[in-house]
Amino acid sequence: MDHDLLARYADLIVSVGANVQPDQVLAVEAPPEAQPLVHEIARLAYERGARYVDVQYFDAGVKRLRAGLAPDGTLGWVPPWLGRRMLDLGDLDAARVVLVPLVPPGLMDGVDPARAGADRLPTVQETFKVIDERSVAWTLSPYPTEAWARVVYPDDERALERLWQDVAHVCRLDEPDPAAAWDARIDEIFQIAQRIDALDLDAVQFAGPGTDLTVGLLPSSRFAKEGGASTTRTGVRHVPNIPTEELYTTPDPERTEGVVTATKPLDVSGSLVTGLRFRFEGGRAVEIDADTNAEAIRGRCATDPGASRLGEVALVDGHSRVGLLGRTFFTTLLDENAASHLALGDAYSSPIADPADVPRINESAVHIDFMVGSNEVEVTGVTRSGERVPILRGGDWQV
Description:
Blueprint: H1 3-17, E1 25-30, H2 35-47, E2 52-57, H3 60-69, H4 80-91, E3 95-100, H5 113-118, H6 126-133, E4 137-142, H7 146-152, H8 159-170, H9 178-197, E5 201-208, E6 211-217, E7 230-231, E8 237-238, E9 247-249, E10 251-261, E11 266-268, E12 271-273, E13 277-281, E14 284-289, H10 294-301, E15 310-315, H11 321-324, H12 332-335, E16 341-345, E17 367-371, E18 378-383, E19 388-393, E20 396-397
Parallel strand pairs: 1-2, 1-3, 3-4
Antiparallel strand pairs: 5-6, 5-18, 6-10, 7-8, 9-15, 10-13, 11-12, 13-14, 15-16, 16-17, 18-19, 19-20
């Protein structure tokens, strides 16, 4: 691994992604293979004056052993100290870096998908609480591993090298000043989001092969409230996803109707779900089908009453750096920045402009993004006056 590239990447994550502050605690979560980048992140964080860097490596192989061998009825149990750690980070107004995928795509091949889907780790529900409270400056960034690279580039002896080249490109590490490049891109996203908000939309419609879906919005759902960058309650600006190409908002969980077909495979904590299809009535996914591993996603959607309702609608044009590569990466962070997507489960309160609407947003212990966009899927806005306005056609913005 090129040390200069690793140092540039760590600097982007520490200074722009998490924006680590003097005397701040930084939590880092990563696969064991990411140790070289973790060490660079820790070094830079301490140089910026961090009080403490807490590193947690997630062993995906042990997760597979649990899915195959643990007693029935125990797979949904989450160790309480993991949730308490997240809440403690919030109390400390900490920073948090997660290097993904923590679980390689396809890790659970050969495991009963119902059992594989029952174990939600490494995700813990308390994460959603600290996000809504804006207490933690958090960022997710990809780290290529051999296991992940073999899925993206099967039968290619240069798989890991090629995946690193992709990650460097989509994270803009090939720019003279990656931080400045991200500032410019985030501003572009914000400007588009403002133009969409000016339409005063009541709903967003998706139409394409296997898809005819209407997603209702809340009265104060806004796309420009959160676009690329966020700010914590203490005023620290951070970038939750590197890369980030989406603009998103929080929908009305009771107003989704129709059918939708996923345009990319979905990795559910190691189980690859292909050919995913939903039918929604009254906001709830009443039918869930897939060509492979349907039980993994059905199990997640049965977690609680909110797990089968939408918590996010996100729009991505056809010209993002991720999308233009024309590859499926089988990990949500990259694939969701290649295509418009929806998320089942917990909703973010930050895109809601009126506090009176916040009690209406969806609540769940899960948040599962799945991709529904492509150049063949038309996205149309429906205004509160009933006017239909083109938003995306052929992957191009129309606003």
